[in-house]
Design goal:
Layout (H helix, E strand, L loop, with lengths): L1 H28 L17 H4 L20 E4 L1 H4 L5 H14 L8 E3 L25 H11 L3 E7 L15 H11 L3 E5 L8 H4 L1 H10 L4 E4 L17 E3 L8 H12 L10 E3 L12 H13 L4 E3 L8 H7 L2 H7 L8 E6 L5 E7 L5 E7 L5 E6 H4 L6 E6 L4 E8 L1 E6 L4 E8 L8
Parallel strand pairs: 1-2, 1-8, 2-3, 3-4, 4-5, 5-6, 6-7
Antiparallel strand pairs: 9-10, 10-11, 11-16, 12-15, 13-14, 13-16
Helix pairs in contact: 4-5, 6-8, 9-10, 10-11, 10-12
The structure holds 2-acetamido-2-deoxy-beta-D-glucopyranose (3 copies).
One 2-acetamido-2-deoxy-beta-D-glucopyranose binds next to loops.
Protein name: Alpha-galactosidase
Catalytic activity: Hydrolysis of terminal, non-reducing alpha-D-galactose residues in alpha-D-galactosides, including galactose oligosaccharides, galactomannans and galactolipids
EC number: 3.2.1.22
Amino acid sequence: MAKLKQSNSVCVHLLLLFLCASSCVPISARVAPLLRSYEKSIFGSNFHTVYDTSKYGLLQLSNGLARTPQMGWNSWNFFACNINEEVIRETADALVSSGLADLGYVYVNIDDCWSFATRNLKGELVPDPKTFPSGIKALADYVHKKGLKLGIYSDAGAFTCQVRPGSLFHEVDDANTFASWGVDYLKYDNCFNLGIPPKKRYPPMRDALNASGRTIFYSLCEWGVDDPALWAGKVGNSWRTTDDINDSWPSMTTIADLNDKWAAYAGPGGWNDPDMLEVGNGGMSYQEYRAHFSIWALMKAPLLIGCDVRNMTAETFEILSNKEVIAINQDPLGVQGRKVQVAGIDGCRQVWAGPLSENRLAVALWNRCSKVATITAAWNALGLESETHVSIKDLWQHKVIAGDAISSFSAQVDAHDCQLYIFTPLTVSLSEE
Ligand SMILES: *[C@@H]1O[C@H](CO)[C@@H](O)[C@H](O)[C@H]1NC(C)=O
Ligand SMILES: *[C@@H]1O[C@H](CO)[C@@H](O)[C@H](O)[C@H]1NC(C)=O
Ligand SMILES: *[C@@H]1O[C@H](CO)[C@@H](O)[C@H](O)[C@H]1NC(C)=O
């Protein structure tokens, strides 16, 4: 009985601790709402309904990173397991020489297969001596000298997906190893997870990275299991919302729709991640890749290039290097754009939009079907007040196509193509709400 009492009081203490943890931490970590005020002469009264951001900011991880979505490159989509230190170095070189690094693509992320099949006698991860003979520290030094950052990969399980050692129950050792190598980013996968829920397996690595003393971007890749948008804001800087993308139109569109569901939860410090870009890998048309890049930019997805940047076509480079599209993704307001209007059979005619800084809007007209279509964006659907006059710049044609539009805007869009615009209101009064 006495024993029972004692354990009860331990429970009470734990409960108090828990209550404190769940009420004190979020308050201290709470950040300002994303859309506190809006310009009433420009936007309609439905603005906060169309662009709900109410779920953002309650539980943000505060390591200072990811103020805008991460940009860079990752080895998986093109190279899969066929990587080595030469490929990584040459990719870093190409990011710089092509000008992509200057546009913001700074993370050079090594995915699965860098590690040897077993840990060393001290229990540490070691790079595969055949493919990474100089080691990861040397690679980190190499990319840092070029002004870039190095990312690495591990898994919240017994093994990685390609059956290298996983970091589950080795979080502290592995985080310290990554920090000692000068790693800047960790993608943390979900294979061989022993059936333990992600909510249990992902926080220990957050804590271990933090305790390592090195600021390391923490990218959760748990495939959207248990709806990470609901809880990962306090765990990572980004969280995958879906299964892996593949280089096809059905995969890309399915993932865009799934990621859209969580728009209200994303913002500076923590982003929804619909997976890396397939632009340039050959499985989609130019129009489809342009749509892929436009929509990823608009929904504030990480822009992680997934092709061989040493050998890009002019079209691939044109898409990836569109400064104005990148600027939508990196806009300081940090509100995820979303699907705001769907029309036509099979939802062919779609309008996606999102608020930008300075009372502007990013607007995409996306033809999801295989026949050319005229798509109309109505001001009401965009959250614009019906009398608002806007000028419209087409970001793929690089020109202003309407100087003074009002109430709605229509354009013809090719099959599977996506037009992307910035709407700038012509009448801006400076009054705050
Ligand atoms: C560790 O977490 C604290 C609290 O969120 C934060 O202030 C600090 O910058 C973090 N340190 C690192 C190295 O990430
Ligand atoms: C790619 O993804 C689509 C949609 O999820 C799926 O139907 C298809 O089987 C996938 N293809 C490959 C090669 O995995
Ligand atoms: C470069 O890409 C083209 C396809 O765009 C391919 O045919 C060629 O083999 C690639 N070259 C190298 C060196 O990988």
